[in-house]
Design brief:
Length: 495
């Protein structure tokens, strides 16, 4: 395969000499470790590639001037670049399919400014650090992945999608959740491009294939005193109905609504004590303190029982409650049950309860289901799937098809290809932007099919059935499926 042949054939000496004094690491152990992210832990399909593919070296820019030097050196010596924040991506985003240099952005970690309830930070800033800076002012990030402790804001924008807070504020690509990005092109004379409004979605979830994000500007949300609650119900579907009602109770302010079968909670050893024998429905919730009375009344209406209530981070499970939801559910379950995997299905209103009920019936023989409540493109959705023991790609495909038959939109989280992943739609504007920002095709090669002839050969898991996710309502017009302005971003202002 062309990509595989290219690996190891890069002119490292020329690249290093063009870099000047930008810190670089070639120690094979460190390079191997930093060539991995969480993909191998999450996808049995991509696991082999994720463990075998290794970069040639690591570069660690100290500031924006170093980023520009790296971009120029890469263009001059045709060195592939794979951007890296904390390396927590779990869908193949950060795996160097064609070798090259991993660009560790974690030294660009400054929170640059806060004003007018928004914040601007360098791409390598950890989301935890951003929240620590803004919370004392009464404001916090609208949403963050459950990896907030370590994950960077550049990595979230480049590879993430939604998270804790999305039950109220929607997904990251929803208009208004990402105010601006500063991005560097990979050219002999690199440009600094500022993207605002809808154009930010060209770079969001593009896996670092179309520019180096250097700065991110985000709107903030009120930082409530959040109370964490674990609630159990006799039946799983009662928990789903309760979660739906909670999500649509606009007066009850919430930051997390995770729904899972009691069997899933039982498999997470740090929190299983909050379950109750014979209760098969569980909801993990973060609720604004003044809303707890109303929340308790809602729990009562649905016949639930609150088995744990605590301030954020102070529960008996010894971690913030959100570290048991989102991707962390899998992480905890896999500690004792390493063979269990899951999919990323999107069950959307108006029929999400009915669709989940159909899947719950269909997959009743499997260990259990887990979902996250999120608002998505103006609609309410539950994102998740059954957990199941992985037997092979045919079984995986069957489960994906079953979920789709029940009414879910199923993303393919077992492919390196952005497009086949199904969480981002790509059109001509994306192709033009990619050509303008990365004319030599050096950024994370093998991830964007339309710009790399060899990508098809390397598309591990690319043929699994995925209907993809459609974005209907956020567009600027009836034909604007991806919600982006038609004005070309390739010609965006250059600083
Ligand atoms: C346990 C667990 C839970 C998770 N929960 C969530 C969740 O709730 N929501 C969610 O969306 N994701 C989730 N993820 C996926 C991942 O943690 C998040 O997407 C996270 O934000 C990635 O940040 P990072 O700094 O680790 O990025 P990395 O993994 O380092 O990078 C992610 C992608 O962005 C690119 N990138 C990194 N920095 C830049 C840059 N400066 N410029 C351009 N591209 C860049 C990388 O090349 C890569 O393609 C989870 C993963 C795990 C393992």
């Amino acid at each position: 395969m062309l990509l595989a042949r290219r690996q190891g054939m890069h002119n490292i000496e020329a690249f290093l000499s063009a870099l000047g004094d930008v810190p670089a690491i070639a120690d094979p152990d460190i390079v191997r470790r930093k060539s991995r992210d969480m993909t191998a832990n999450f996808s049995p399909v991509m696991k082999r590639d994720a463990l075998e593919k290794v970069a040639d070296l690591i570069v660690r820019p100290r500031d924006k001037a170093d980023v520009l030097r790296i971009a120029s050196a890469a263009a001059r010596t045709r060195m592939p670049l794979v951007m890296r924040g904390a390396g927590t991506a779990n869908f193949g985003q950060g795996i160097p399919l064609a070798g090259g240099a991993m660009v560790d952005m974690t030294a660009l970690s400054k929170v640059l400014w806060m004003r007018d309830q928004s914040v601007c930070a360098e791409a390598g800033a950890r989301m935890m650090a951003i929240d620590e800076a803004t919370r004392p002012t009464g404001w916090e990030l609208r949403m963050h992945p459950s990896t907030k402790k370590v994950a960077t804001i550049g990595g979230f924008v480049g590879g993430g999608h939604a998270g804790v807070g999305s039950c109220s504020y929607g997904i990251l690509r929803d208009r208004g959740n990402l105010l601006g990005l500063e991005v560097v092109s990979i050219e002999e004379e690199p440009r600094i491009v500022k993207l605002r409004a809808d154009q930010v979605n060209l770079v969001h979830h593009a896996y670092g294939t179309n520019g180096i994000i250097t700065e991110v500007e985000l709107p903030l949300a009120p930082a409530w005193r959040w109370r964490e609650a674990v609630v159990v119900f006799a039946e799983f579907m009662t928990a789903v109905r309760f979660a739906h009602r909670l999500a649509t109770s606009d007066g009850l302010l919430k930051k997390l609504v995770s729904v899972m079968g009691g069997g899933i909670l039982e498999m997470m050893r740090s929190i299983r004590a909050c379950g109750r024998r014979g209760k098969d429905g569980v909801v993990l919730a973060m609720i604004a303190a003044p809303c707890m009375e109303g929340f308790a009344a809602l729990v009562k209406d649905f016949g639930g029982e609150i088995t744990s209530e605590a301030d954020e981070g102070l529960g008996p499970y010894r971690a913030p409650l959100y570290e048991f939801g989102w991707g962390h559910t899998r992480l905890h379950v896999n500690r004792d049950f390493p063979d269990l995997v899951s999919n990323v299905g999107l069950y959307l209103d108006p029929d999400l309860v009915g669709a989940i009920e159909r899947s719950h019936r269909r997959f009743a023989h499997l260990p259990g289901m887990a979902f996250e409540v999120k608002r998505f493109d103006g609609k309410l959705s539950l994102q998740g799937s059954p957990f199941f023991r992985y037997e092979g790609e045919a079984q995986l495909a069957d489960i994906m098809r079953g979920m789709a038959e029940d009414g879910a939109h199923v993303a393919n989280n077992h492919t390196f290809l952005v497009k086949e992943g199904g969480m981002k739609s790509l059109d001509d504007e994306d192709a033009a932007f990619k050509r303008a920002m990365d004319p030599h095709g050096l950024m994370n090669p093998g991830k964007l099919r339309f710009d790399d002839d060899a990508a098809g050969d390397d598309s591990t898991g690319g043929d699994l059935p995925s209907s993809g996710w459609r974005y209907d309502d956020a567009g600027s017009g009836p034909d604007s499926r991806d919600g982006k302005s038609r004005e070309s971003a390739a010609a965006a202002p250059v600083a």
